[in-house]
Specification:
Blueprint lengths: L1 H36 L3 E10 L5 E12 L3 E3 L1 H11 L2 H18 L4 E5 L2 H4 L4 H12 L6 E6 L8 H12 L3 E7 L8 H4 L4 E4 L1 H4 L7 H15 L3 E4 L5 H9 L4 E2 L10 H9 L12
Parallel strand pairs: 2-4, 4-5, 5-6, 6-7, 7-8, 8-9
Antiparallel strand pairs: 1-2, 1-9, 2-3
The structure holds ligand C2E and magnesium ion (MG) (3 copies).
The site of one magnesium ion (MG) has 4 residues, from loops.
Protein name: Bifunctional diguanylate cyclase/phosphodiesterase
């Protein structure tokens, strides 16, 4: 009996895997098509807010895909497919181009762009970023590239070289989703970064007396000791923002301030919040 149910379980698992693979192939084919005209694709921007002044100092670019039949598809679903299929090259280029176009329009504001590990492994990546900055007229110092901790484990020379080249031109590098991966601050000596973004999973637990307060405090203290700025992701309540302020956090991002919005809406938000001295000052 155990054998049969074991076999059945294997069959069910196999069927499930087939469905998953089929879905991935469908997403890949549809995304390939979407990238031909890019009509279904867009980039939204979520405000980055200075902790002390609560002014909008920049925005993070987030890819959006609206499929005519399937509706909105989350980047959590299509980014991994894009990475596994090589489509991330074209998609990443599209996002960077839109981000640089916005950045040129709003000098002095930081535009943060998520970069996949796959893109960084391309030897031509840094040159491509410089081309886009030149074409659009965006300043290098207004661009921030968000990479994930997985890159820190990547011994590949190419990624490290790209990061060094980009950084030496004044582009800032942020480590995204900090705390979810390997989080060894010792890696930060090998790949210097300007900012870490504390993952939403820590921020969402922030309340007085909770362990996560001590964790976030430790991250901020270490980061500042290494001259690294800190952004807290996924801030949804005034209590979280308040605790983060007490812990010395630099920049806030989350639904408490705004959801990601269209390019023209972020331009309007910037225009309505003009007194900005920049997001780079250390608290
Ligand atoms: P991420 O880079 O960590 O981006 C932050 C995500 O958190 C976004 O989800 C944003 O909408 C969401 N978020 C912001 N504030 C809050 C909040 O207060 N509460 C909650 N619950 N969520 C909040 P989104 O847009 O669905 O993107 C998910 C992930 O997909 C991103 O995480 C990033 O890893 C990836 N991604 C999105 N666009 C791109 C892209 O252009 N390129 C690459 N390589 N990855 C991208
Ligand atoms: Mg990000
Ligand atoms: Mg993040
Ligand atoms: Mg995150």
């Amino acid at each position: 009996k155990a054998k049969t149910s074991g076999r059945n379980r294997a069959v069910v698992y196999q069927e499930h895997m087939n469905e998953v693979l089929q879905l991935e192939r469908t997403i890949e084919a549809e995304l390939r098509e979407a990238l031909r005209t890019t009509d279904q694709l867009s980039v939204h921007f979520q405000p980055l807010v200075a902790q002390k002044t609560r002014k909008i100092v920049g925005a993070e670019a987030l890819a959006r895909w609206h499929h005519p039949k399937f509706g909105s598809i989350s980047p959590v679903k299509f980014i991994p497919v894009a990475e596994n299929s090589g489509l991330i090259e074209d998609l990443g280029d599209f996002v960077l181009r839109k981000s640089c176009a916005l950045g040129a329009e709003v000098p002095g504001r930081t535009i943060a762009v998520n970069i996949s590990t796959t893109q960084l492994r391309n030897p031509g990546f840094a040159a491509r970023v410089f081309d886009l900055l030149y074409e659009t007229g965006m300043r290098a110092t207004d661009l921030e590239l968000e990479i994930t901790e997985s890159i820190l484990l990547d011994d590949e020379h190419v990624s490290a070289q790209n990061l060094r080249t980009l950084r030496s031109s004044g582009i800032h590098i942020a480590l995204d989703d900090f705390g979810t991966g390997y989080s060894s601050l010792s890696y930060l000596r090998r790949y210097p970064v300007d900012r870490i973004k504390i993952d939403r999973s820590f921020v969402s637990q922030l309340s007085d007396g909770h362990d996560s307060v001590a964790i976030v405090q430790a991250i901020i203290t270490l980061a500042h000791a290494m001259n690294i700025q800190v952004t807290a992701e996924g801030v949804e309540t005034e209590e979280q923002a308040d605790i983060l302020g007490r812990l010395g956090n630099n920049t806030l991002q989350g639904y408490l301030f705004s959801r990601p919005v269209k390019a023209d809406e972020i331009v309007a938000k910037f225009a309505g919040d003009p007194e900005v001295s920049g997001s780079r000052q250390v608290a």
